[in-house]
């Protein structure tokens, strides 16, 4: 986990990217004007169990619901990463512009499932995906936190980036309103496969909401390559967490007026 936790903050680059437009987006989407305030609001969703029981869990509060997440330490996907909290905070506080109610949503690299759970609590029909090894714990967390609380029962299923994506998610029958992704770009060898998966799943009307933690240069170049295919809008910039939240949509097919929500 060293590669993941070691942060490459790249302050110069951040400053360069932090344009006036970014500042405007912070105001529009967050109501908080500073990184510190926003980071504090994001982290305030977490709480720790007051009494230690036989099973350890991390507590989160979203949508007025208590969410208990079981982690383990052996796999990246078994740990909850702060990007997931950033994305959940955004979804919860921007329901007027980004309503998930009755929307078809897919999450890539869902890990311990917080984003899937919060999206389901907010009314989405969620397909929660990850590598096979991660699915057991993901299913456990998703069931434990959504059963009897959500309109739609989330579907937990394998999606290994770049593998059999058309067979598992044919474009003719699987059109998603949103693709959600938190902390899926880091030093793994499947960045091209991840790009191809975004490309396959993102149709004309699909929007991608992607929280990215910046660590190392090669991963940053993923953003530049991503920008060649997709329009990219920055929704949050959180230098103190080294996280940015992006919204994206297809360049080649887009007919929808994506400027609306940002206006
Ligand atoms: C850093 S974790 C983030 C987990 C979760 N989104 C969060 O923010 O807490 C990266 C996730 O991507 C998944 N992942 C890594 N490589 C993958 C691949 N080739 N195909 C599908 N998922 C992958 C991991 O299993 C893990 O759940």
UniProtKB/TrEMBL annotation:
Q: Report the coiled-coil segments.
A: none
Cited Gene3D superfamilies: Vaccinia Virus protein VP39 (3.40.50.150)
Q: Name one GO biological process term.
A: methylation
Q: Which CDD domains match?
A: AdoMet_MTases
- Output the Pfam families linked to this UniProt entry: Methyltransf_16 (PF10294)
Q: Which UniProt keywords apply?
A: Methyltransferase, S-adenosyl-L-methionine, Transferase
According to the UniProt entry, its GO molecular function terms are: methyltransferase activity
Q: What is this protein called?
A: Methyltransferase like 21e
Q: What taxonomic ancestry is recorded?
A: Eukaryota, Metazoa, Chordata, Craniata, Vertebrata
């Amino acid at each position: 986990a060293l590669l993941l936790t070691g942060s490459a903050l790249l302050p110069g680059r951040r400053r360069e990217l932090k344009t006036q437009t970014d500042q405007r987006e912070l105001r529009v989407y967050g109501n908080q004007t500073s990184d510190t305030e926003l980071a504090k609001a994001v982290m305030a969703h977490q709480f720790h169990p007051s009494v230690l029981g036989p099973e350890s869990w991390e507590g989160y509060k979203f949508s007025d619901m208590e969410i208990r997440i079981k982690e383990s330490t052996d796999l990246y996907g078994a740990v909850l990463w702060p990007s997931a909290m950033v994305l959940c905070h955004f979804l919860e506080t921007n329901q007027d512009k980004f309503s998930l109610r009755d929307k078809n949503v897919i999450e890539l690299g869902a890990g311990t499932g917080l984003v899937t759970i919060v999206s389901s609590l907010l009314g989405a029909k969620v397909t929660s995906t990850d590598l096979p090894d991660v699915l057991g714990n993901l299913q456990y967390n998703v069931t434990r936190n959504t059963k009897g609380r959500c309109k739609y029962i989330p579907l937990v299923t394998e999606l290994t980036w770049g593998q059999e994506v058309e067979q598992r998610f044919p474009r003719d029958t699987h059109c998603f309103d949103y693709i959600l992704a938190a902390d899926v770009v880091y030093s793994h060898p499947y960045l091209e496969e991840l790009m191809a998966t975004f490309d396959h799943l993102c149709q004309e009307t699909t929007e991608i909401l992607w929280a990215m933690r910046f660590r190392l240069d090669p991963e940053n170049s993923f953003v530049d390559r991503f920008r060649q295919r997709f329009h990219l809008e920055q929704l949050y910039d959180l230098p103190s967490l080294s996280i940015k939240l992006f919204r994206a949509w297809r360049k080649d097919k887009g007919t929808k007026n994506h400027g609306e929500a940002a206006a």
